User: Fold this.
Amino acid sequence: MRIARFVAQGDPTFGVVELAEDQGPNPETVAAVSGDPLAGPVHYTGERLPLADVRLVAPVIPRSKVIGVGRNYAEHAAEQGAPVPSSPLVFLKPNTSVIGPGEPIVYPAETSNLHYEGELAVVIGRICRRVPPERAAEVVFGYTIANDVTCRDLQAADGQWTRAKGFDSFCPLGPWIATHLGMDEAGRLDLLTSLNDEPVQTANTSEMVHSIPDLIAYVSSFTTLLPGDVILTGTPAGVGPMVAGDRVSVTISGIGTLTNPVVSEEA
Assistant:
């Protein structure tokens, strides 16, 4: 199942993205549901709309936090000239950094070196603390796609990553949450990031240094995870700059494609 948030008219609504049996794998309609599937049971309202006629927004606005993981692909650590951490290297992004598919990534005046970082994101589905790796699947609601936008120069200058990764619009999520993926499958998905339709990152999530179960266990060892919290699992090698006027897309097999344009702060 693919859970989306969309706007047709009025406030955002949750819905189930449906596949047309005779149209191949491309989503074609969205069936509206009542309530928030992360908060409790929902029901189909009976309203179905062509996907092309609605505007998708971020499939989740984390209630408390987005947890990022740094250098979780060995080749990315190498391209940054940094060692692979023996334990997950984690940081926080504010929920105000979250935007949805198609929304613009704003290039701040404070940076001159803005980078894309395509990633698999894990959406937590229940309150949990100290989750052992073998039970991690029990707390996952689903998976979505993220772009961990980073001011590379501020990251180096500050010595810590909050400002470099925390600007508004620096956490695109979407296009929806795939709840049908098992944890084993999520751990072997193909990832492709494209800049203006040119491939710049290619990897498989099996190349992660620390697996999804291990990340959930580690993060939940020091903080309580809440429904709607998001864990970004790290980016592979191939990160690089983007400028106003660019368009960045992250595609993950079994989920879909997240695309965002880049605009200057003055735009």
In short: The chain has a mean pLDDT of 95. Residues 2-57 form a domain with the SH3 type barrels. fold (CATH 2.30.30.370).
